[in-house]
Write a structure and sequence with these properties.
ten-stranded antiparallel sheet, alpha+beta, 10 strands, 351 residues
Length: 351
């Protein structure tokens, strides 16, 4: 049976890397609390958002490895139980052979067997059969004992490795929890700044997130990478004067928001029902709106590429919780919206 492999070296290396992230001083992120610069807290949210995602992936990977080792340990246990049953059967067979031999010779000493045997050939044949049977059973019993020993060792190694993986997983879970706590606090600060801007009706200047140039390879993308669709276009409710004018994407505060396609930023405003919002005009005349934001990373008049980060989601304005309100309009103005889902689907973006 093949012994289980040790977990890859990158698991402890990753743990060290996450520990360094947790130990990173607040000053490196632009301070803490209300004294952080706008760009500092926005960038910090994005970094922590990515750190939490990486920690989650490693946690799940180590957990899967632990489950595999547990299954291997249980398999070894089943093999060992079958081997023990087979050994017990062999011992029973050996006992039956011994008892049959005893009945055949009547417990007569070997010297008497020589005297009582009709011929030397009969005596030799009787002894040879018994010796061969006894040797065969003893050989199989010895092999089984060795197999039992190997299986027990494999099971012990597998169980030890599983316990080690579980220990690492608990440590990873603690680090993940610590990252999440920092992320929640950074999101709170970011939303507090956004609420102040929305209340004043004056947007802060565009923040810098140090994002690499987008390389989507596609002309159109979804406005956020990971999401849950919530309020749909045209839905009714007490939060809208008439009907819901867009499609909501339920995402946490600080989630990077992307331009669904290339275009020009024609509007960046704060205050009112939409809170902090961005409107982009695309070639062909269609416009897209991104609302209830916590921060914007573009200024009015900027040219943006498909997939470029343009904002961070929030819950400013008339919002019941963190989400991105996304609209597709035939003009930059409210009231010209169409259903975003089929519009994106027609452009190869399936939500």
């Amino acid at each position: 049976m093949r012994s289980p492999r040790r977990s890859p070296l990158h698991v402890p290396v990753f743990l060290c890397a996450v520990a360094l992230l947790l130990a990173r001083p607040a000053a490196a992120d632009g301070g803490s609390g209300g004294g952080e610069a706008d760009s500092g807290v926005s960038a910090r949210v994005v970094r922590l958002y990515e750190d939490a995602a990486a920690a989650t992936q490693r946690y799940e990977a180590v957990h899967r490895e632990a489950e595999k080792q547990l299954a291997e340990a249980r398999r070894s246990q089943r093999l060992l139980a079958r081997e023990q049953k087979r050994i017990a059967g062999l011992h029973d067979d050996l006992g039956r052979i011994a008892r049959a031999q005893y009945r055949q010779v009547g417990g007569v000493p070997y010297a008497a067997q020589i005297i009582l045997a009709d011929t030397p050939e009969e005596l030799m044949r009787s002894q040879h059969v018994f010796s061969q049977a006894n040797l065969a059973v003893e050989t199989m019993a010895a092999k089984s004992r060795r197999a039992e020993s190997r299986l027990a060792a494999d099971r012990a190694r597998s169980s030890a490795l599983w316990r080690d993986l579980e220990k690492r997983n608990r440590k990873l879970a603690g680090m993940k929890k610590a990252i999440q706590a920092k992320l929640d606090e950074a999101r709170r600060v970011l939303q507090k700044q956004a609420d102040a801007s929305a209340a004043a009706g004056t947007c802060r200047s565009a923040v810098r997130l140090d994002e690499a140039s987008p390389r989507t390879g596609r002309p159109w993308v979804a406005p956020v990478r990971e999401y849950r669709l919530s309020a749909p276009f045209g839905g009714g409710g007490t939060h809208w004067a008439n009907r819901h004018t867009g499609q909501d994407f339920a995402v946490p505060i600080g989630t990077p928001v992307r331009a669904v396609g290339a275009g020009k930023v024609v509007k960046v405003t704060c205050g009112g029902a939409f809170g902090m919002e961005v409107v982009i005009e695309h070639p062909g005349g269609y416009c897209t709106q991104y609302a209830h934001l916590a921060a914007v990373t573009v200024n009015q008049g900027d040219r943006v590429a498909t997939g470029q980060w343009i904002a961070q989601s929030g819950t400013t304005g008339n919002s019941t919780g963190p989400h991105l309100h996304f609209e597709v309009r035939v003009t930059p103005q409210l009231g010209s919206g169409i259903d975003p889902v089929p519009w994106l689907t027609a452009r190869g973006v399936k939500l």
